[in-house]
Amino acid sequence: MSNLQTVLSVYESIDNHLKSLLAKVDLSGGQPTREFVEQSRVINDQAYFVLAWGQLEAEVDEACRDVILSGQSQQLWSLRRVWSLYDPDDQKRSGLSFKNRLSLVLEAGSGPWTVTMKHYRMRNRIAHGELLSTRLEPEDMMQDLIGVRSLLAHR
Amino acid sequence: MKRMSRSEMETRYFDDDYIGDYPLNTVLDEVTSDNVDTPHVERRVDDWEERLNGLYQLIGELLPDGWKSREGLPVTMHEKMMQAFDVPAREIPTLELHSETGTIVKLAPEALWIVGNNGRVEMKSNGHWYRITDRSQIFKPPKWESVRSDRRREKHALTREWLAEVLR
Prior knowledge:
Radius of gyration of chain A: 20 Å
Number of helices of chain A: 6
Strand content of chain A: under 5%
Distance between the termini of chain B: 43 Å
Number of strands of chain A: 1
Oligomer: heterodimer
Strand order of the largest sheet of chain B: 1-4-5-7-8-9-10
Number of helices of chain B: 5
Largest interface: A-B, 30 and 35 residues
Strand content of chain B: 25-35%
Structural class of chain A: mainly alpha
Shape of chain A: elongated
Order of helices and strands of chain B: HHHEEHEEEEEEEEH
Structural class of chain B: alpha+beta
């Protein structure tokens, strides 16, 4: 997530610009319309959230790879055999869904796991074409993602 | 916006993101849950209006000498979440702060449904935009904090000192 702070800074800069544009629109009553600028802010929020999400997903995949490699390096075949089913270098780790990849590196059902899955659900809605009707606050959400990152198991 | 049904969701995402039902404690929960209904949205708007009135009362109590607060013109609230659940538009209160020297600072709600917090109010003073954000969970007592829009990582509790600095 090395680019997260940069992503956040760029987001803030654009959102501040749109906010000042909104104030000017109110004063002039001209173009672009207030509705257009407000919609731009909603889309900007969601675009940057999806960008930030990608950073966390890459971290989950990396941690998942480490866990698989760690399992495959067990001395005992009885411990190693289940891990041999997964290819650590395959992009989806041999067909594991995101939920299952996450469950390999965070305890399923725990608070951080649940929050991450809710973010993932929201990310899916946005990324699959359903623009959310609400504003997002990417700053706070990125802090959540940074917190989750620190909890990921790597072995 | 029409919500997708459970079966539509399953078809679309192959259930990869389904984690069962959960209580609605945050806006993130509301946005990702299939259990939001019209009474819930109506209750949320009522609660927002109550919290706004509480905030305006607090701001009035924190004002430095030489300032007075008075009710501003109400603004219309009809957020997309209300539209999606057929909740009619509502007039909600704003606040104006007047100084002895004629300066006027206006506080107006920006939005209730913001993923990451529980509603936001904005105000402009001395050329800077400030956000006053409720960090509480849904239907819990508010936890207000403020940031200047161009210094979003410097968070401030609402105190006399903070307000004096903003209005200086």
